[in-house]
Amino acid sequence: MTERPPQRIPNRQLAALIAEAGFSNAGLARRVDQLGLEHGLDLRYDKTSVTRWLRGQQPRGTTPALIAEVFTRRLGRRLSAQDLGLDACAPVYAGLEFAATPEEAVDIVSGLWRKDSGSHVELRKIAFTPAGLVVPSRDWLIGRADERVSRGEAVQNGTIRVPQQGRASVPRQRGTERGPGQKVSGGDIAALRSVGELFRSLDNAYGGGHARQALVRYLEHEAEPMLRGTYGEVTGRRLFAAAADLTRLAGWTSYDIAAHGLAQRYFVQALRLSQAAGDRAYGSYVLVTMSRQAVYLGHGREAVQLTRVAQQGVGSAPPVVQALLHAVEARGHGVLGEVRACTAALVRAERALETARPGDDVPHWARFFDEAQLADEFGHCHRDLQQYRSAVQHAERSLQLRAPAYARSRLFCRVVLASARLGLGELDQACALGAEAALQASEMRSARAVEYVREFERRLEPYRDAAAVRNYRDRVAALG
After folding, report:
1. Cα separations (Å) of 380 from 280, 374, 385?
2. What is the pLDDT along the chain (480 residues), one digit of tens a residue?
3. In terms of Cα–Cα distance, which of 297, 288, 356 is closest to 327?
4. Do residues 364 and 279 touch, judged by C-beta distance below 8 A?
5. β-strand partners of 127
């Protein structure tokens, strides 16, 4: 006797929410398709699809999360796939959500850390979706700082708990293993900051692939328990700020190994954590980081839009931060070939940096932006605009000023200089510079470094029969 297929149970939760939202079946399907487009998905649902869902069929892939987001936007309250009577997916889409609350932000980003730490290869193959930049940047711009981020028993009934009198105030020795619910201290946050500096130095010198996995595991095993620990408002804001910085760095190192979709998701979550921290300036830095990725991938229009959102949302900022925002906007215009807009943004960046003074209170994350970095931005822009003589001038200045610790940045600038020399017809000098960069790239774990060299080699193709180019290829081949 053959078994009958399991009978589907009508989805009454979904039916009730459709009625509450005032959707027709066709209207719901259309909104799901439109939301999918925002995240780079080509969906083809119609009213028949919704009828099947109401009869108990479970949509596949990321669709349950998309449906939940449609209802969340319509009804003004956060709804999950389970609230709709749907199976929860493990959606890659979830990483592009700008969470409604700090608690939800912790859930999303910690899920991302765990999946990445678990060596999920498919996670690193997720595509970058330009449309996925729109919602998070908009929500950051119009959003307000979270009213409360504290957790645990630090505050009860609006009053601060005071220790009982008569007891010795000897601090308890802390365990070596951190667990959820443990009180977060200033030392914990200082440790997060120190770890960030360590991994930043490794990334600058050796490439994002060198210690990326160690950083992600640190976030999973140390940062997540802290975020789920006990802390008051002041400590909580500082904790979210430190977590935002490390999450942005996880995105940056993912970007450097060409895991672009994963990097995009880390950047979105870092942006949300910065909002929980109440740090608009750092949020602007995350946005320009996203803009840099868009520039690298050739999405100039999105890159410019991200920097303008950052400029609009940051409010007052130190001159160094303003210079950074304008310089990265210029990079977007450069990719688009917009000479006038690019030049204007570079001038604004230069003027802002000129007003900076030694005593200025510059955020730790912006201290890298100095004359060497500004010259680097100028060099890239002029290279993209085919203004090769100016590109040579600024790239050479950047290399003169740039500290050796920024090895990868020096490599990029050397390739810009090589390309500009090539544009001026100086083939021998271009090939010599390119060979130096290729040697550096071979000693790094950086997909971007390799791609910079490859892009230079594509420029060499019209001269492939020249002796200098043949010599260059022999030198690179010898590197293995």
Report:
1. 28, 10, 9
2. 454 555 678 899 999 999 999 999 999 999 998 888 776 677 889 999 999 899 888 887 678 888 988 998 888 887 878 888 887 654 445 588 899 899 999 999 999 999 898 866 778 888 898 888 988 999 999 988 899 999 985 444 444 443 444 444 444 445 555 566 789 999 999 999 999 999 999 999 999 999 999 999 999 999 999 999 999 999 999 999 999 999 999 999 999 999 999 999 999 999 999 999 999 999 999 999 999 999 999 999 999 999 999 999 998 899 999 999 999 999 999 999 999 999 999 999 999 999 998 888 899 999 999 999 999 999 999 999 999 999 999 999 999 999 999 999 999 999 999 999 999 999 999 999 999 999 999 999 999 999 999 999 999 999 999 999 999 999 999 987
3. 288
4. no
5. none
- Whole-number Cα distances in Å, 64 to 31, 55, 125: 13, 15, 21
Q: Which amino acid is at 31?
A: R
Reading the block at residue 348, the tokens are 């604004």
